[in-house]
Write a structure and sequence with these properties.
The structure holds two protein chains of two kinds.
Chain A (H helix, E strand, L loop, with lengths): L9 E4 L2 E2 L1 H5 L12 E6 L8 E8 L5 E9 L1
Antiparallel strand pairs in A: 1-2, 1-4
Chain B lengths: L1 H22 L8 E8 L5 E7 L6 E9 L14 E9 L2 E4 L4 E5 L10 E4 L14 H7 L3 E7 L4 E6 L14 E9 L18 E4 L25 E5 L15 E6 L3 E14 L2 E11 L2 E12 L4 E2 L4 E9 L4 E8 L3 E10 L1
Antiparallel strand pairs in B: 4-10, 5-6, 6-9, 7-10, 8-9, 11-13, 12-20, 13-19, 14-17, 14-18, 14-20, 15-16, 15-19
The chains are: A mainly beta, B mainly beta.
Chain lengths: 72, 344
């Protein structure tokens, strides 16, 4: 019942799994020393102007995620 | 009497501003922070955004943290209801012929509040309170959780289909089951015990900002849906000023129950001249403040201008007594209006 970290994290942009391309592995597992990721460049995966959708999933564990999308 | 009329005019103007903000359906194309308070298998983080140009640079920052502390099982929560997650390792009482498995939870649960996340030979599960058409489209469910016997605390898990037929063994894989239960022999119920899909909240402007010299408003509300409009006006003392912690007024919303809900703070602003402003949505739990979302933008032109920001927070966990409030500041003359929308 103790608090846990989520694991098996995947990132999708417009329904395409880009986890491997941004993290170098099929899934991302985090811990106290590896839980913050800044400035991940999604530009190559957002094709053209218009609406895009991002989804971050995990397959086990319970946690909290804070996400910031920066457009320049 | 004159002041009453002025107040009425002011509230009418604020309401119109808020209505305008709510009517906007444009996707955000500005930078913004989003928070998912409960992030697990059944509650992924999702967001839509709009790139104005083909060469717009998009950068993502992610910060993961452990789940907020859950109420202890031996704690009598507000109105005798608590939310809790329990972790199981492997199935209990698996029926090989059906693949169904039973889980015995520590307490009887409130029907409709159980959800589950796990990792095993079958990678997807189904929850029965998050199964909106949108989520079904996302998750392509192949398993489900069934609330077999709420009084006995029994849930059943099974599959519609498995990648390898007959493979149901996930022994050793952690399975998290979360639910809301009514604490036994609790006598503190105060009437706010509605879990049929509505959310009871109370909005109040109270002494959250004792040091502020700005007008404060007391709003008390109980119901479901949007809060009443909340407006404020600020006049920095001398021209453009730096951000300060006390310039922005506070607007508070107090949770009277434990619940998980999506929160939107819809604001509308009006300014004269170039300015930068920010809005923060802050949760106060006990003596601790936590910025759960923020928004900031700059207008560099002259004349009248305004923004219609929407700050969205997915799956926010409220515990009884939590206060959610918005705070804003800006470096030139302006006025602001906004309201909270609670949905789940």
């Amino acid at each position: 019942m103790a608090a846990q970290f989520p694991s098996g994290i995947k990132v999708f942009v417009d329904d395409v799994d880009i986890t491997y391309w941004i993290f170098g592995s099929d899934t991302l597992t985090i811990d106290d020393s590896n839980s913050r990721f800044t400035g991940i460049d999604l530009t190559p995966y957002c094709s053209g102007a218009g609406e895009h959708r991002i989804e971050v999933t995990c397959d086990t564990g319970v946690g909290r995620v804070e996400a910031r999308i920066q457009l320049d | 009497m004159d002041s009453t009329k002025q107040l009425g005019k002011y509230l009418y103007r604020v309401r119109k501003s808020v209505d305008k903000a709510l009517a906007s359906s444009t996707l955000p194309d500005y930078s913004g922070e989003r928070v998912r308070d409960i992030f697990d298998f059944g509650n992924p983080y999702r967001e839509k955004f709009r790139t104005p140009k083909a060469d717009t640079r998009v950068a993502l920052s992610l910060t993961f943290s452990a789940a907020p502390p859950q109420p202890a099982l031996d704690t009598c929560c507000s109105d005798c209801y608590c939310s809790v997650c329990e972790v199981f390792y492997g199935y209990e009482n698996v029926d090989p012929s059906t693949g169904y498995a039973k889980f015995l939870l520590s307490y009887p649960y409130v029907p409709g509040t159980v959800y589950i996340g796990y990792r095993g030979s079958v990678e997807h599960s189904r929850t029965n309170i998050w199964s909106t058409p949108e989520e079904q489209a996302y998750s392509d469910p192949i398993g489900f959780i069934e609330e077999t016997d709420p009084e006995a605390g029994i849930v059943t898990m099974g599959y519609y289909w498995a990648a390898e037929p007959g493979v149901y063994e996930v022994s050793g894989s952690p399975i998290t089951i979360c639910y809301i239960y009514k604490y036994p022999d609790c006598s503190e119920a105060s009437g706010f015990t509605n879990y049929d899909g509505t959310v009871n909240i109370e909005l109040q402007r109270n002494s959250l900002d004792d040091s502020s010299t700005k007008p404060q408003y007391m709003i008390t509300w109980e119901g479901t849906g949007d809060s009443p409009p909340i407006g404020w006006t600020s006049y920095p003392s001398v021209g453009p000023v730096a951000y300060t912690e006390t310039a922005g007024p506070y607007t508070g919303m107090k949770a009277l129950d434990n619940f998980v809900a999506d929160v939107d703070f819809n604001a509308s602003t009006a300014f004269v001249g170039a300015h930068t402003m920010w809005i923060q949505v802050i949760r106060r739990r006990g003596d601790s403040d936590d910025v759960v979302a923020s928004w900031e933008d700059t207008y560099s032109g002259g004349g009248y201008s305004g923004f219609d920001p929407n700050i969205h927070i997915s799956g926010m966990q409220f515990y009884t007594g939590d206060v959610l409030y918005a705070r804003s500041d800006y470096n030139y003359w302006g006025q602001n209006a906004g309201n909270f929308r609670i949905s789940r």
